[in-house]
Amino acid sequence: MLRLEGIGHRFGGLEVLRRIDTSVAAGELVGLIGPNGAGKTTLFNIISGFVRPATGRVFFEGRDVTGWKPNVLAALGLVRTFQGARVFPNLTVKESLAIARRPVKGRQGDAAARVIATAQQLFDLDAHAGEEAGSLPSGLMRVLGIAMALSTGAHVLLLDEPAAGLSGEEMEHLQEVIRQLHQAGTTIVVVDHNLHFLMGLVTRAIVLDSGMLIADGPPEAVTADPRVVEAYLGAADLADG
Amino acid sequence: MTDMPDLATASVPPAKAPTAWRGWLGSLAGRRTLLAVLGIAALAVLLAVPATASSRYIVYLGTLLALHGVLAVSLNIIMGFAGQFALAHAAFYGLGAYTSAILIRDFDLSFWASLPPTAAAAALLAAAIGYPSLRFTGGIHFALITFAFGELIRLVTANWHDLTGGPQGMQLGFSPEPLLGIDFGSTRGIYALAAGLLVISLAIAAAIRFSRFGRSLVAIREDEVLASSLGINVTANKMAAFVITSVLAALAGTIYGPFVGFISPEMMSASDSISVVGMLIVGGLGTLAGPIFGTLIFMGLPELLRVAKLYRLVILGLIIIAVVLFAPKGVAGVIDRLIRPKRGGAR
């Protein structure tokens, strides 16, 4: 479904990604974890077409899509969300979802429609249909961002820190939405700092540290890996301090 | 799966009863309708008064208002809907007037036959300057390029004596030929033509606003990066909007020629382009009725007050400052706010 070959990138003199080789099969639910500055968001930007990698190729459904524009990839079914609450601030919830919605045919479309309905129900988006997105509570704003990405009928979804800033209850609802999305056949890659949120959710975890892929496997095995523990705890101290 | 309704109920904020938003949405639709009705009323005044008046001056004023209405309505497509600052609108207006006049003079075309090539020329030029500048996010490149292009067109027109008559302008001896039994050559005929183009422009703007294309433009105005992540081709949509905007301005220009009987490079000045931007800001950017309100206030008020062109810009400058300070969403925004139901915490 998604394959990365030797992805490397630098900002100025700083090497932010070094020879990343990995792939995600159709229907997988993968967590991408790592401390701040590990290169997770840059990798997302590269996969979704917002940044062209300095080296390496991105393959999507067998095609080399390196350097393709984000809107082209989105139209092919590869859609990402953004960190923070990125919505159209002056448009209502209803208008925002209408903008994102694309006609998707067949089973994929039905499944997407069901998941969107579930998300709207779980997060009570319908009750806010007439409100401007910019005046929503921040938890709802994040959910709206995800709901818009879903509405495009994407079959590969890249979620960038979807749970950041959510309450415990909202986080559970989000997990439920992601699970249903996965069951409906969507391939999902989730970036998050919150290991607790990810570990109860994903079936596979990829760990980045300083631009390198240091571990890849079932979440339990990965979190027990001494290199991961070291990278994570070391950075967690920095992030907290 | 089965416990989902419970989860949903649990997440409802207690302050918002389920019926509250229905009432809110209902009144939202009501507000939109009322604003539309007021817009149509303003349009009706603009169209009906000159059509029935016996005074030549009123018909003249009506034609002038209708042509500027077309400029405001069309600029609103790229600027109000798509949020891109275009500063070449008067240049496309003049380009239309000159292209049509030159085609009629040098190639013996009828007025009507000159319209398609004039529209095509405007579309090609808009695409040519839109493509390099609209690829960038933020709009500053586009604003600068359209400004420079407007000045370039004006200077070329002023200096290409053989083709355009230079700064002295061109005297035009033609008027639109009768069509479908309507005499478009008379003062009233020209007025009908201008009013017709205004109605067509409004219909196009309304059709765009409620289409997928229009929704994409609004998404681009709000956040280009988010729009592209949702599959919207940002550059192509902005270019399409700019081409439509510019073609309508050029068509208004083709009517201005036979209306006044004289065209000069002055009609392409940057201050005229900025005036149209002012009409939009005063009327309400991005709304359908806003450009009509803006045109009536911007063009109609000074004429009614019988103050010369000299003072118009002063008065309009003051109006713009007042609007920006006290009513940033323009007249349409003020009306919207007046008729909006009282609601705690609403903006």
From TrEMBL, chain A:
Residues 2-235 form the ABC transporter domain. Keywords: ATP-binding, Nucleotide-binding, Transport. The keyword Transmembrane helix does not apply. It comes from the Bacteria. GO terms for molecular function: ATP binding; ATP hydrolysis activity. The keyword ATP-binding applies. GO terms for cellular component: plasma membrane. SMART domains: AAA. InterPro entries: AAA+_ATPase (IPR003593), ABC_AA/LPS_Transport (IPR051120), ABC_transporter-like_ATP-bd (IPR003439), BCA_ABC_TP_C (IPR032823), P-loop_NTPase (IPR027417). Pfam families: ABC_tran, BCA_ABC_TP_C. This is ABC transporter ATP-binding protein.
Automatic annotation (TrEMBL), chain B:
It is a multi-pass membrane protein. It comes from the Bacteria. It is found in: Cell membrane. GO terms for cellular component: plasma membrane. Coiled coil: none annotated. CDD domains: TM_PBP1_LivM_like. It comes from Chelatococcus reniformis. Signal peptide: none annotated. Pfam families: BPD_transp_2 (PF02653). The chain crosses the membrane at residues 33-51, 57-78, 85-104, 110-131, 138-157, 189-208, 239-264, 276-298, 310-328. InterPro entries: ABC_transp_permease, LivM-like. Its main location: membrane. The keyword Transmembrane helix applies. This is Branched-chain amino acid ABC transporter permease. One of its GO terms (molecular function) is branched-chain amino acid transmembrane transporter activity. Keywords: Cell membrane, Membrane, Transmembrane, Transmembrane helix.
